[in-house]
Write a structure and sequence with these properties.
The chain has helices spanning 12-24, 90-98, 103-107, 110-118, 135-152, 158-169, 213-226, 230-242; strands at 3-7, 40-42, 45-47, 50-51, 60-72, 75-86, 123-129, 133-134, 175-176, 181-186, 192-197, 208-210, 245-249, 253-255, 258-259, 261-265, 275-279. The chain is of the alpha+beta class and 283 residues long.
Length: 283
């Protein structure tokens, strides 16, 4: 079999299906395989490489993680850790503008993160508390940030106002204990799913649904701005994916989009490299 290496940005269909396979074997895969897709552990919080978030049936991959940290009196206080997951189709959507950019360009660009927040793909955010906080205080901070962002972008409507009120009410009477998590899923329709857990587990169902994706998008941007190290993490991982190499079969091609059939080698850490034969035929 004649094999060659093809850049990820030219082989997005291969990449998307390989993500699905990788998700099935994520716990067994050698950590050296595509390090841009491995799990992240930060401040004792472990974020799995793939999850199906509440309110979704899709498998999303870990795009990056970070910590909300504040400095004062010569010491720092870390309040929460956060991970953002994206639907794999984001790789295709973001490729045109960002595939050729450097990590520095991506990390320092507000437009890159706006493209993520507003893109036509699912997003999921998990925030795990490192310090205990009152739900009302947390909701007030996020609501204020979202109002400012939506007002500045001229998207603060009566619908958004009602959704933010519902968002705030979901936190009333809650104590966000250390180790507990907040989960927000932004769908490709108009819904935003909000859920709470007492640990880092991913719930299957949401507790509250908001019918305003603009609020979900503003929540994501607020979260990215608060968790100071997440921008570097997301920029590095997504840039790394564009610069990765994957093996495909250099056989007959059915169209300009690539080979009709391709093969993907994944090292499962067993000393062997199973060969997956996948049909890439488009109907």
């Amino acid at each position: 079999m004649n094999m060659k290496f093809t850049s990820l940005s030219n082989s997005v269909p291969v990449f998307l299906i390989s993500l699905l396979i990788f998700s099935l074997y994520a716990d067994k895969c050698d950590a050296t395989f595509w390090p841009f897709l491995k799990a992240i552990e930060i401040e004792g919080c472990k974020f799995r490489p793939f999850v199906t978030p509440p309110g979704s049936t899709q498998i999303l991959f870990l795009a990056g993680s970070g910590v909300k940290e504040e400095f004062g009196d010569s010491k720092s206080m870390k309040y929460s850790s956060c991970a953002i997951y994206l639907q794999p189709t984001c790789i295709l959507y973001l490729a045109k503008a960002w595939a050729q950019k450097s990590v520095v360009d991506i990390t320092q660009s507000l437009n890159f993160f706006m493209d993520i927040a507003t893109g036509p793909f699912e997003k999921y955010c998990r925030i795990t508390m490192l310090e205990t906080a009152k739900g009302e205080d947390y909701a007030a901070m996020i609501t204020k940030n979202c109002e400012e962002m939506l007002t500045n972008s001229k998207r603060y409507s009566e619908t958004a106002k009602a959704a933010l009120t519902k968002f705030s009410e979901a936190f009333n009477g809650r104590t966000l204990a250390s180790g507990s998590s907040i989960h927000v899923t932004v769908s490709t329709s108009n819904s935003v799913t909000l859920a709470f857990t007492e640990d880092g587990s991913t719930p299957k169902q949401g507790d509250v649904t908001l019918d305003c994706k603009e609020v979900g998008e503003a929540f994501l941007m607020s979260t990215i701005s608060l968790h100071t190290t997440i921008r570097e993490s997301m920029g590095s991982r997504i840039s790394g994916l564009y610069k990765s190499k994957i093996i495909i079969d250099d056989g007959p091609k059915n169209d300009i989009n690539g080979p009709k059939n391709f093969h993907l080698d994944i090292n499962l850490g067993t000393g062997q490299k199973p060969l997956f034969d996948l049909d890439n035929t488009e109907t």
